[in-house]
Amino acid sequence: MKDAAPATAPETFYLKDYKPFGFEVETVELTFKLAPNSTRVLSKIRFSPQDNAADPRFFLHGEALKLISAKIDGAPVTPELIAGGLICDTPGTPFTWEAEVEIAPAANTALEGLYMSSGMYCTQCEAEGFRKITYYPDRPDVMSTFSVRIEGDETVLLSNGNPAGSGEGWAEWHDPWPKPAYLFALVAGDLVNHPDHFTTRSGKDVELNIWVRPGDEGKCAFGMEALKKSMKWDEDVYGREYDLDIFNIVAVDDFNMGAMENKGLNIFNSSCVLASPETSTDANFERIEAIIAHEYFHNWTGNRITCRDWFQLCLKEGLTVFRDAQFTADMRSEPVKRIEDVIALRARQFPEDNGPLAHPPRPEQFQEINNFYTATVYEKGAEVIGMLKRLVGDDNYDKALDLYFDRHDGQACTIEDWLRVFEDATGRDLSQFKLWYSQAGTPRVKVSEDYADGSYTLTFEQSTPPTPGQPDKAPRVIPLAVGLLAANGDELRATEVLELIEAKQSFTFDGLASKPVPSILREFSAPVILERETTNAERAFLLAHDTDPFNRWEAGNALATETRVTMVTEGAAPDGAYLDALEKLVRDDTLDPAFRALVLSPPSQSEIAQTLHDRGVTPDPQKIYDAAETFAQTLAQQLETSLPRLYAATTVDGPYQPDANGAGLRALNGRILSLLTRLDGGEQAARQYQAADNMTQQYAALAALMKAENGERQSQAFFDQWQNDRLVMDKWFALQVACAAPDAAAKVATDLTRHTLFDMKNPNRFRAVMGALAGNHAGFHHASGAGYQLLAENLIALDSLNPQTTARMCAAFQTWKRYDSARQASIRVELERILATEGLSRDTHEMVSRILQG
Ligand code: BES
Ligand code: ZN
Known about the structure:
This protein is an alpha+beta fold. The chain is built from 27 helices and 31 strands. Helix 2 packs across helix 3 (313-331) and helix 24 (786-799) packs parallel to helix 26.
């Protein structure tokens, strides 16, 4: 008989408890003897005690390892094995530690440490996975050079650094750059490569490879071009060159995240590197280009300069997201990238920052660090750097970054180190600015205005609602980019950055002949919520005339939100002035098609729910859904006569190219097709589906048809065509759920979990179904509670296999307090059911407890 295990509270780690490791690791030598169920890992590590090491014993992390033998300076030792590692006496002088352990990569479904995916061995060590490979001080401030020997039958045996010899059944690698263990990687498999090379600006030739399973070699060319562009861009813009003879990228099918920046051996979720016109959409191409850049850029921001501890995660992630956004803006369109990022920030980070999971970009405590790879650490972390750059100016930013690379190369750093380079480079005091790193919550900025005698005054009041553990907030430094427009649309004042530092503060503009129209928070200069009483007429004016493209889009977005809110709360019809404005915009050929597509994209239903909640109205997901449908139908009717012409005018001729211009046109064309399908019953979409030679158009046609009569037949045809392509099948699984009507979503998702191609061990497939369920707002929140129940059941089932992916998906419940008491009660039941699961992982336990408590 089994006793119910008492839910022991997992250990909490605190930033304030940081202590350096007592030993320096000089060198690491690893030998891997690969076997699926019994891989042997031999380690030989040179340790030397630091002056301040009072304790001659040392602690090494280790998890799920079978210790075969251990020696110090050649003599066998018997360490004390404890939970999470071992303790051993040491000589008190420099010594060599040797250990042999056994692990079972084939049984590793958590996809952390050494595991197998589609027959190949691969690793994922960030954040704390290396301890599942061997005993080691698995913390980012312990840096060392690694030499690796791999013995295995696979044709390709890879690790970090430069090749150091190979023969039949073995290969050796040496990485000359000291690194923390989380950047260690190993890959072994019968892989094929897409080779190329790059000459750095100092003339060094670097061998480049993308390694894939046989059959995927035709999907590497785009990723390779993205890599070369990234290498060039980092030289041109940040002065950063690559520092090894070889750079390898490997695509794996089973991966918890998108990709990982292991030194010289990046490992990618195959969905984030493999691309072909027939199987990938424009959005896939854009994401692949960005993520290849992101992981490559980590070579300097993350690898050469790493984090002292995991509380400093945004030091590398926020900065690298900021850098990859700059790259995408340079490669594609700056305003379009900015609008896309703000949409994503509001969809993912704002709910986090305003709910039970709120935490600062630099958290001060955690139970499981994997739960803190969040939109706040990443996206808000990047926003904070954007504000810093705006405050100090572009030249000072460059100076500060040069100083950062100069001063901290080879070190494991903190946010304090980061801010100090800005203070030293600019002479600016950043102590108030630092609050952005320590305070959670999205600031509200209330604006009021006053005009008299040619003087125009803007008054701003900032406040941040309490967040878990942080009831009181101090005023922050908020850079507000503001411009002023005349009634005829002329720009009266070009963009100027106002620095809001007080709780309440006014700024006056003199010499204005009449009351201007302000354009505030241009380019979304700070991650705040702007609260300003204004009229739809003024919003329509800005949508038509603002000289800042971001704020032009923002005005349209505000109009869309207002229209939707009045439809939901008052049963009103869609606002006619807004429909007219949209019509004018769609037809304006002088505007970038990508921008027009964004203006035509409605705010998400989840965002409308949040807006209603913020205004004290309990959101009804079904009503929000109905309003979205009515709005789209009305817009389609309004545009009826021009839709066929618009559709034709935005159809891209010639062979498919995944460039930004083509993608923008296709995005607009797709929006128009979905409206057209509401009127023609899917005639045009069916034609497009048949004629499509690329996934973007095929998928757009299928998505439009899913709601029309022939949706099911078309979906079956799509399945028949693509059932052997995993990545396309993920799209198919997700689309079924995303397009399901509110009362059908849970049923559709349930059936898909019973499909022969459903495999919960594959994170991409699990996310395709469960992520789409959580993203189908009215379906997930259907009053029956079936959506909540289905997600909970699947999370419980996945938890024992893959805690990381389970825990991340719990975030679907974070917005639960927005909804009515019946829905809250249903969600509470599910959350408590998850929490009561025997043997629940620390990851999921932490997430669910925080959601329940918040
Ligand atoms: N270092 C991360 C990958 C990672 C995160 C590994 C958490 C283990 C745990 C990598 O650099 C990253 O940030 N990847 C992102 C994509 C990126 C474009 C923001 C990802 O995987 O989603
Ligand atoms: Zn990253």
